[in-house]
Amino acid sequence: MVKRILVALSGTPFTDSAIKHALELAKIHQAELTGVTDVDLSRIADVGPVPIGGGAAATGLTEHRLQITQEHIEKAISDFEQSCANAGMKYCIDRETGDPFEHLSDQWRYHDLTIAGLRGLFEYGVVHSPDDEIIRLISKGIRPILAVAKEYRPIKKALITYNGSMESAKAMKRFVQMRLWPDVQIQIVCFDKQADEAEKLLSEAKSYCSAHGLDAITERVEGSPRVVILDFAKQIQADLIVLGSSSRARLLKQLLGDTVLHCLRNADIPLFLSQ
User: Fold this and answer.
1) pTM, to two decimals
2) By the 8 A CB rule, do 96 and 6 touch?
3) How far apart are CA 170 and CA 40, in angstroms?
4) pLDDT 10s digits, 99-140
């Protein structure tokens, strides 16, 4: 059941899509929306090492960054408020100018789903270690996350990646149980497995979906998911990819630079991230 949705209003090119997806889901589930600013202004002000004699230029750059970022955030808040009002949806705004990850974590405790832009964390050129930020976001327990693409598109077909791991099973189960889009078509794909093993895994996954009233198409695909997943999603015209995320201890070794981070940086359709 989805009754409270948290929407990250970062003021990036992905924010409009995040708002549209949030409104769509709020209408389906009669849910409340909370818009929260998720940009750390202190990090915006960090321009890195300043050479001798470059203080004035650095100050000017900082002020420009802060002004532009604040303008983007205010526009995002205004767009969110206007969109919610026009749709007659219940909403509130939570402004945050400190550590956005700490604040999102606090707010997540009282929300069922978090919606943010796919590459909102990489905007403005001020996140020096984006990999660390991805670890931080997921490891704080902010999941499930609907990471949306820049262009809004209705979610009619979902691609679920499943390899039998606990992480992929949890993601599949969470997505099926939440029924975010009641009429969504589901295709479950097993990558890089021997035929017999893949057939068994896919049969069990299909049976699980059937128990929840969903008919799933299954398919085995050769190759590493990091290499082929986005092309395959495009080939089957998927509107969403469901991915499991590992724990913090394994995330750095197994996911960064691998499937999840690759999709976050390169996908042009939304991702449902869970564990």
Assistant:
1) 0.86
2) no
3) 31
4) 767 777 888 899 999 998 887 554 444 444 444 555 566 667
Ranges of H-type helices in the chain:
15-29, 41-44, 55-87, 100-108, 130-139, 166-178, 195-211, 225-235, 248-254, 259-266
Q: Which of 215, 140, 148 lies closest to 10 in space, CA to CA?
A: 148
What is the identity of the amino acid at 107? Q
Choose among 153, 160, 251: nearest CA to 201. Answer: 160
The encoded tokens of residue 94 equal: 């939570």
The tokens describing 260, both together, are 């999840």
Burial code (b: 16+ CB inside 10 Å, e: under 16) for 209-227 equals beeeebebebebbeeebbe
pLDDT digits (tens, 9 = 90+) for 57-86: 556 666 766 777 778 888 999 999 999 999
Provide CB contacts within 8 A for 3, sequence distance 6+. Answer: 29, 30, 31, 32, 112
Which region holds residue 192: left if phi is over 0, alpha if psi is between -120 and 50, else beta?
A: left
Domains of the chain, first to last: 4-148 (3.40.50.620), 157-274 (3.40.50.620)
